[in-house]
Automatic annotation (TrEMBL):
UniProt-recorded name of the protein: Tetratricopeptide repeat protein 21B
Gene Ontology CC annotations of this record: axoneme; intraciliary transport particle A
Upper classification of the organism: Eukaryota, Metazoa, Chordata, Craniata, Vertebrata
One GO BP annotation of this record: protein localization to cilium
TPR repeat start-end pairs: 735-768, 769-802, 964-997
Amino acid sequence: MYSGCKRSIPLSVWLCIFSYIKKNALVAQCECLKAVFLSSLLNPCKCNHLFLSFPQALIKYYCYEKYFNHAVNAAAAAQRKFSNDPIYTFFHAYGTLMQDREVIQELDAKVKEDRKSAPPKSLYYAGTFLWLLGRNDKARDYTERMIKFSNGSREGIILKAWIDVTSGKDAYARKAGKYFDEGLKERADVFALMGKAQYYEYRQNYSGALEIVNQVIVSFPGFIPALIKKMKVLLNLQDWEQTVDAAHRLLQKDKNNPEALRMLALHSLCRDGDITELSNLISSLDILEPHNPELYYKIITTFLGFVFLQCGRNEKVIEQTLRMVERAFSVASGDSDLATELGYQMVLQGRIREAMKWYIIDRDRTSVSAMTGIIRCQLIEGHLEDAEQKLEFLTEIQQSIGKSGELSYLRAVLAAKKRRSQEEVTNLLNDAVDTHFSSLQGLPLGVEYLERLNPDFLLEIVKEYLALCPAKVQLEESSGQASAPQLQQCASLLDKVVKIVPGLLQGVFLLAKVRYQSGDIDAAQSSLQHCLDQCPSLADAHLLMAQIHLQQGSVALCSQSLELCLSHNFEIRDHPLYHLIKAQAKKKMGELTEAIQTLQMAMSLPGIRRAGSSSKSKNKKTELSSADCVSVFLELAEALWLNGEQHEAAKMMQDAINEFSGTPEELRVTIANADLALLRGDTELALSMLRNITPEQPYYIQAKEKMADIYLNHRNEKRLYASCYREMVEKLPSPHTYLLLGDAYMNIQEPEKAIEVYEQALKKNPKDGALASKIGKALVKTHNYVKAINYYEAALKTEQQNFLRYDLAELLMKMKQYERCERVLHDALAHEPGNKRPIHDDCRYLVLLAKIQNKVDKKEEALLSLQRARDVQAKVLKRVQLEQPDAVPMQKQLAAEICAEIAKHYTSQRGYERAVKFYKEALVYCETDRKVMLELARLYLTLGEVDACQEQCSVILKNDQFNEDATLMMADIMFRKEDYKQAVFHFQQLLEREPDNYPTLSRLIDLLRRSGKLEDIPRFLDMAEKHSSRTKFEPGVSSSDNGDICFKYTGEPNDALRHFNKARKDNDWVDLINRQESEQHAVRTAEKLLKEIKPQTPGGYTQLRILENYCFLATKQKANVEKALSVFTEIANNEKDHVPALLAMATAYMMLKQTPRARNQLKRIAKMDWSIADADEFEKSWLLLADIYIHSGKYDMASDLLTKCLNRNKSCCKAYEYRGYIQEKEQAFRDAALSYEMAWKYGNRTNPTIGYKLAFNYLKAKRHVDAIDVCHKVLAAHPNYPRMRKDILDKARAALRS
């Protein structure tokens, strides 16, 4: 039965195995094992080590990880494959034995007997046996002895390396890597490779560990432990996505693998709060490891910290963990740890008395965990004296048992229940947090880290902190003061927990509550919305959301939240907070009677008149905090007072004083009484009440803040205002009170004193980043920029305040020290890839760097910085979606802004297609961002993609029907489609709502001009003038008035100049002035006016250069014209298809008599797509090219250009004049008359030359009366106009007479 390769195993090991088998009446197997043992002594090993190393490594892994049933099954499979090799029989027996703890000690003792006479192989397996039992020191002795006797056995060296790396002693573990390398010299050994990966993991070189594990997977594809190790290493690298993928791949090879199922269960709990995978894990353990209590206990402790998941404590998680504990206890009923665990399970279910029984049943009376459990129960039951005695005992022996965060927490709970000082309770809670997190130092993200993190325990600490905080919300934007230190500690604690366990919705809710109480309303609302998306029935979240809506003044949304809360949990009517918020909403709407009725209903709730009591409603316990109860009293008193029922209000306030006398909430009543005194205008009474609150009492700081507020806002006494905060510092010196004093000095514009106080506070708390930042900002506020820069640089040298780098960079940018700012940002970005600094910091630095590079005209470098920022932000988003789902909207907004900046860069370089791509990407991140949608619409319009532009504008106007930019673009689109009626309609919509919107008015006038409806303009100008008595003095109306359009385009330059002169000091209209001036008046005047222009954009600067060089053209001196031409050419080369520059070049060439060159530039413009931005330049270029063609006799080509011009501007006088000239040349006098008639109309019938030509063509077309009328009009304005009377008027009269 047992033949083949034999191994030498210590006699004592076999004897113990025999005794175990005999005890279980397995006599036949016992005889077989004896035969195996005797055979192993007589026959040396002749097996192939390579073939045997794989199954042995697998079995050792299972034994080491305590998967004993797996080890038994793997050993049985190896026995069948390798002819029942005795080594696998040994492992089979070991796995079986380890599931019965009573035999282990007997076996361990008998191993010692055979040490002196055992051969090397026996020593090797004895060492393996002891190592698997966790006796590393003994195992090392056996292994070193074996290595010595076998002249450096490779197997022994590998085992020694494993013993060292798992010893928990750094001195041994550091040497393990060298031993593993030595063991791997001859050949690849799976056991050694896995050990090398373990060594890298110990040294936190997770990339190296992953590389080794991948090597094992390639060399030994069926080796399951390698896949498990890879999964764990990926989690160490904080890559949940790949960890989950690895778990799924593992399940494809081993469908019930407990480690994969545990990882998936952890992922589901941490990320989504889902317990489905936990059920699968338990079912798998029931099948695969039914008699392994140690493994059950190991799994239980992993998941116990996750009982707070979705809507409060998750009963399903507790049920599952209780089932596992009970199963484990049924297998090992004498296990004290399991008994203690059962006690804790009872506590979680609120079964305190049963829990006490389990803790007392614990056989090990010195068990610290059992005693801790008893203390917890006694605190819950209110047996404070008994709890205090036990806590004192445990505190005394802490040096021997090790410091415990839970012990400090229980001491804090006891101190709070005994109403000791807030400072004492806070210090104990701080100590609990510090002790708890010190145990996590050096641990990578993994199963052990999540187990030790214990989120449930941390949430309990947060609740104790919150109980110490003021009940009233602190509004940072109004007070400018820091929130309570307890709130800051809560925020720090919850940020860590929620980042690691975002599925912990109770943690997210508490974070929202902390943010709300700290005054960060937007962040609180974001967190709450995430909670409600995941768990709509979370009543507390609905109540807090209602409070936020009320704070924001949205009474309707507040009522909606209350209704939703009630629909999900009808029993919320028994909670005073529900009625309190409802009453506050009624009060805000002015419905004081209803508010009073609601509060009176709350007063009738069971237990409301017993602070901190509990009532039973429909067999369920409703916890009523004293803060909730006192709030109802105070709110009712205020509502009664406001309703004119002063006597009832005073009575209610007296009831509150009586009800809460001797409790911490008594002081809230005193502060509320002071508020009522203020409402009566009695500030002295309010101050005298507040002065009675002493530093030893809770709410002292709040009372002093109220006094300070009275001095500042009611009495305007800044000195006394500051003295309140100085007294706080004297009585309660702490970083927080120093911070409040500094903020107070900032509020009364005394930043120098604030800086001194901040510096003192920073000495007390050198790691406080917010405080360090305040000092820098205070220095900036005093305009002491040099000192601010020196301060930032000195702080950065200490390497404790690296986050100040951003503040320093912003300050340097503000001071226009761009080179220095760029250097600071490059230093910030120059860090090692493994640096633990948050990667979103890099994103902020890169965005700021891009701004700087743009300012110093490093366009390409700016683009590269933005693209790097985009890549970094993509990583941030990927991580945030897993770690902080409530922060996803904010991070998506930032990603959208980065993409939009990249798009703007490409737009400025006329890379429109790429710009469209990045604007679309921005909309993927934030699909409702109107700014991005508008920019994309403008881009589509520039590209001539009218339908795409219209689609974007329609989406914007659907959500914001009065959006000005979208309406203007829709008008432009309608104009391009020649739907002038719709175009005007869009402008009318805006102007009817805001008649003095001058930019819109100017655009409308331009549109009416282009659509040939100049006669409609006065109506809109009249609307603007009637809107306000000041309208006629506004630069906008002067520019939009007849000066800009009606006078300029109707041939009345002097009137146009008068109106432009009114508008010349306004930045929005100054470009119009200079353009008109340069066209209408002498060069000197134009140059003088051009000096007044201060361009705000790169495009404005380019336009100014063109206008300045037009002044050179106006001199008509060849040298000046050539000089201007060189500038125009430079601009055209730098900016592709720049229409104004190309037109200016053509104008210069015409002045230099180089008509072919001018024609080439104008033909280039003629081939471009028309855009509204360059509409005037397109028109001028088409007219100039038409003029060239007319002089060359190319009338058809000229006519095409004129038609193009009139399609875009139906009021273009010059185009009608040119067309009339062509028709006249072609003897088509009737058509020519019609064209000149239009030119005469749109020239406001003032140009005598056009009048002469019109009259002449009327005469030729035999329209003699019309010819006479035109002659009279011309001669009335220009009596001496040459040949008008002789050539036309007299002939027309003669023709009529005949």
